[in-house]
């Protein structure tokens, strides 16, 4: 059989092309090739690409690229999908996985069936204000936090009224955030106690249907502002919910878990 088996997965609408590192070396993929396969018209389509490689015991190396070919340290929904796929492909002997990411080791677990997983996010500093960034009309406050990758969290009054493309892009490239910029997450409450979230994601340079690390960032920012206490449930633009629980200390967030979807959509042959 020619080509390489790929796995298309989704985490609450945040979708990925997944490859088995036992058959594809991560270092063999060029940024141009990643852009090609993530293209939604001429390729498979995805917000990013992941190579998973077992490294013995319960350890699995997770290498992640955005759809523009840039390598990223971490992606929460990609980690959920990685945990689920590692179990599905029997890379580990049980449902416990140690994902080795560029942002550090991430403990994860997934059952033998179903389409859910959860990850234990490495401890991180609590959200802080960014003095140079001021709320615009319809916004209450802004916060900044790094959860593997940097995030701006914006508390808004009406999630449907947000100009995610325009306002998101302006904040993503704000000079005060440095040359790397940040992802931008807009959050607002719903009538049933579930929080709503929309994300402008760097590397994709547009709105994505979900963002796992952004959801964690939003949860801690809301808790810091004392708007709601952990655990917090979010409904993504993609539909399925993400849940965040953990412990807040004076300057750090500890033992934070993100639970959500890690669904295998289809398998295919990548003709390379």
Specify the overall morphology: globular
Measured by DSSP, the beta-strand proportion falls in 35-45%
Q: What average pLDDT do the residues reach?
A: 94
CATH architectural grouping of the largest domain: Roll
Describe the largest sheet: 18 strands, mixed
State the helix count: 4
Classified by CATH, the class of the largest domain is Alpha Beta
Oligomer: single chain
Which stretches are poorly predicted, pLDDT < 50 over at least 5 residues? none
Task: Break the fold down into its secondary structure elements and pairings.
Elements: E1 4-11, E2 14-20, H1 31-38, E3 48-54, E4 59-66, E5 71-72, H2 76-88, E6 96-101, E7 104-109, E8 116-121, E9 124-125, E10 139-147, E11 149-156, H3 164-172, E12 183-189, E13 195-201, E14 206-208, H4 212-224, E15 232-235, E16 241-248, E17 252-261, E18 263-270
Parallel strand pairs: 2-3, 4-6, 11-12, 13-15
Antiparallel strand pairs: 1-2, 1-18, 3-4, 4-5, 6-7, 7-8, 8-17, 9-17, 10-11, 12-13, 13-14, 15-16, 16-17
Give a written overview of the molecule.
It is built from four helices and 18 strands. The chain is α+β, with helices and mostly antiparallel strands. The chain folds into two domains: 124 residues, Diaminopimelate Epimerase, Chain A, domain 1 (Roll), CATH 3.10.310; 137 residues, Roll (Diaminopimelate Epimerase, Chain A, domain 1). Strand 13 and strand 14 form a beta hairpin. The longest helix is centred in the first third of the chain and has 13 residues. The model has no long low-confidence stretch (mean pLDDT 94).
Q: Summarize this, please?
A:
With 272 residues, the chain is α+β, with helices and mostly antiparallel strands. 16% of the residues lie in helices and 43% in strands. A hairpin with a 4-residue loop joins strand 13 (195-201) and strand 14.
């Amino acid at each position: 059989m020619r080509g390489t088996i790929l796995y298309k997965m989704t985490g609450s609408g945040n979708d990925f092309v997944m490859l088995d590192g036992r058959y594809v070396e991560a270092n063999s993929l060029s940024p141009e090739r990643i852009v090609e396969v993530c293209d939604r018209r001429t390729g498979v389509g995805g917000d990013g690409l992941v190579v998973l490689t077992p490294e013995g015991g319960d350890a699995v190396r997770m290498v992640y690229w955005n759809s523009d070919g840039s390598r990223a340290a971490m992606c929460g929904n990609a980690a959920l999908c990685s945990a689920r796929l590692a179990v599905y492909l029997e890379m580990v002997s049980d449902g416990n996985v140690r994902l080795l990411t560029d942002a550090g080791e991430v403990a994860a677990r997934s059952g033998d069936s179903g389409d859910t997983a959860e990850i234990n996010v490495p401890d991180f500093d609590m959200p802080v204000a960014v003095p140079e960034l001021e709320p615009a009309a319809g916004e209450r406050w802004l916060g900044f936090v790094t959860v593997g990758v940097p995030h701006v969290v914006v508390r808004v009054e009406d999630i449907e009224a947000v100009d995610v493309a325009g306002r998101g892009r302006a904040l993503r490239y704000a000079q005060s955030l440095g040359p790397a910029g940040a992802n931008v997450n807009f959050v607002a409450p719903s009538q049933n106690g579930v929080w709503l979230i929309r994300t402008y994601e760097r590397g994709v340079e547009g709105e994505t249907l979900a963002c796992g690390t952004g959801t964690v960032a939003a949860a801690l920012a809301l808790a810091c502002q004392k708007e709601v206490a952990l655990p917090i449930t979010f409904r993504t633009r993609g539909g399925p919910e993400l849940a965040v629980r953990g412990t807040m200390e004076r300057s750090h967030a500890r033992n934070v878990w993100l639970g959500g979807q890690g669904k295998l959509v289809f398998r295919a042959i990548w003709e390379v």
